[in-house]
Specification:
mainly alpha, 3 domains, two-stranded antiparallel ribbon, 26 helices, 2 strands, about 0% strand, elongated, protein transport, transport
Length: about 575
């Protein structure tokens, strides 16, 4: 530590951060890098103690500034010489090494009482660095500044922010000297100006950690909820209320998943190659974004719903309005939208609708349980809309329609239809709770919802329907038969059609996955007890007979196999063994 300080030739540690970054010769830079590497190694195993002095911390943070000094990189690129370029890289490396030291200290969860003041000092200095990195002026936007910094430095700095929020925020937010509000404002800027997708993913993880922290703190201190919220998030960007801040975060995340606002970046995402988690880059991007949306919904359900639903409605209107452009052609039906601009806009709208349907489905859990009655109207609005959309898609068969750009628009139309079914499936537990509330009185609205949903499903239970859409319909059928399972389900004509379709040996067999799901659904309709009814009203005798008939029909061909076609094979196997 003394060696580093002497190389910087600083007369006062307190004033160090405000001084210009010194010019070091090659030998000094080499010695500094070795010293920082040693410190990082030491910090990885020694406990936090008084050996780590304020002066040492200040010196390390001063070196961390080397990584966010864009002037050095500019000078080396302008001067063009390889020597200048190497010097610029070395100075940047000092910043990376310094951040490694800081992160080793940050990763320690066991912090002695006497060290908490040092932590506060560290965060104050980090706040200064974050201000420097996200500062805008005539020559720089925040994004252009971040683009000019070394990627390794940005990664280390993001790691620091993650450690701060996950490990130490609970210690620091009570200190009046630490500007929590301003810190969150800078984190917001830092997040939404990331130059790479990976950087943005990492920042979303930080927000997820922060929202988890906030949720757990509220749950543990419900009596003091308002005080906690106001202290943590009082107007960190605009307005003067906590709710406005989180809604602003929600709005920005929603904008980032929509082609309408973020087309250039979204089109860069790979939607074909699967990673180790069996998801594409696009699916990962969407999933992480929706996790933030869901956590804001948990904190502010009314505000989150009023932000999301109007956006969904706008895109639904475009989809529902496509019927007027469907015309009859010689080979079937065609979507009469041919202009290149119109096709591109429709493609973006359909992609956005698919994402927003997934968002609405992700929020289903926040309408059930203790909050069912309080949020009933919002949930009913969503479910009614989803039922309408699924029926619309099945009736006019947009998934089979001819389009001007079949390689683009047809997959879009199939995906929207499949996602509307999946979103409705997510509300199966809400439908089950709805059924338990109304089964003895005025169940007409519930019966209408379930019957209409089944009308949307039935036409899709066909080997001629694309597998993605077919499986979505089958999964919804299983949820209705297993989770909701109303007493009237078996008597609905649409369910009778499915029974007839699956037991008709002359009909073309469904793909194996779909066949299994449909059989499971039909079996559950007959086997599982009806909710809200006593044992005496379960009609087990009739249902048992019907189930036996179903199994008999499903196994007819198997049972008709001749025994002499099987026995020789068994005999050969026995001889071989």
């Amino acid at each position: 530590g003394d060696l580093l300080s002497s190389l910087l030739q600083s007369p006062s540690a307190a004033k160090l951060l405000n001084q210009p970054i010194p010019i070091l010769d090659t030998e000094s830079e080499y010695i500094c890098s070795l010293a920082l590497e040693c410190l990082a190694h030491l910090f990885s195993w020694i406990p936090l103690s008084t050996s780590i002095t304020p002066s040492l911390l200040t010196t390390i943070f001063h070196f961390a500034r080397f990584g966010c000094d864009t002037r050095v990189r500019k000078m080396s690129s302008v001067n063009g010489s390889s020597q200048n370029s190497v010097l610029g890289q070395e100075r940047g490396r000092l910043g990376v090494l310094a951040m490694s030291c800081i992160n080793e200290l940050m990763s320690k969860n066991c912090v002695p009482m006497e060290f908490e003041e040092y932590l506060l000092r560290m965060f104050q200095q980090t706040f200064y660095l974050l201000q420097k990195i996200t500062k805008e002026n005539n020559a720089h936007t925040v994004k252009s500044r971040l683009e000019e910094l070394d990627e390794s430095y940005i990664e280390k700095f993001t790691d620091f922010l993650r450690l701060f929020v996950s490990v130490h925020l609970r210690r620091i937010e009570s200190y009046s000297q630490f500007p929590v509000v301003e810190f969150l404002a800078l984190l917001f800027k830092y997040t939404f100006h990331q130059p790479t997708h990976e950087g943005y993913f990492s920042c979303l993880d930080i927000w997820t950690l922060f929202l988890d922290y906030l949720t757990s703190k509220i749950k543990s201190r419900l009596a003091d909820k308002e005080a906690v919220l106001n202290r943590l998030l009082l107007c960190f960007l605009c307005g003067d209320r906590y709710e406005d801040a989180l809604v602003l975060l929600l709005t920005e995340v929603l904008n980032r998943i929509q082609f309408r606002y973020n087309q250039a970046q979204l089109e860069e995402l790979d939607d074909e190659t699967l990673d180790d988690d069996q998801q594409t880059e696009w699916q990962r991007y969407l999933r992480q974004s929706l996790e933030v949306v869901a956590k804001v919904m948990e904190l502010l359900p009314t505000h989150a719903f009023s932000t999301l639903f109007p956006v969904l409605q706008d895109n639904l209107e475009v989809y529902l309005g496509l019927q007027q452009f469907v015309v009859t052609s010689g080979t079937g039906h065609r979507l009469n939208i041919t202009a290149e601009n119109d096709c591109r806009r429709l493609h973006c709208s359909l992609r956005d609708l698919s994402s927003l349907l997934q968002a609405v489905g992700r929020l289903a859990e926040y309408f059930t349980g203790d909050v069912f009655a309080a949020r009933f109207n919002d949930a009913l609005t969503v479910v009614e809309r989803l039922v309408k959309v699924t029926l619309y898609g099945s009736q006019i068969k947009l998934y089979n329609i001819e389009t001007a750009v079949p390689s683009v628009l047809k997959p879009d139309l199939i995906d929207v239809h499949a996602q509307s079914l999946a979103a409705l499936q997510a509300y199966a537990h809400w439908l089950a709770q709805f059924y338990s509330e109304v089964h003895r009185q005025n169940p007409e609205q519930f019966i209408s919802l379930v019957s209409t949903a089944l009308e949307a499903i039935t036409p899709l239970i066909s080997s001629k329907v694309q597998e993605k859409l077919l499986l979505s319909a089958c999964h919804l059928l299983v949820s209705l038969a297993t989770t909701v399972r109303p007493v009237f389900l078996i008597s609905i004509p649409a369910v009778q059609k499915v029974f007839n379709r699956i037991t008709d040996t002359s009909a073309q067999r469904l793909p194996d996955k779909a066949q299994v799901l449909v059989c499971r659904a039909l079996s559950n309709v007959l086997l599982l007890p009806w909710p809200n009814l006593p044992e005496s009203e379960q009609q087990w005798a009739v249902r048992s007979t019907n189930h036996a008939s179903l199994i008999s029909a499903l196994t007819r061909e198997y049972r008709q196999l001749k025994s002499n076609a099987i026995l020789p094979q068994r005999k050969v196997q026995l001889e071989d063994s």
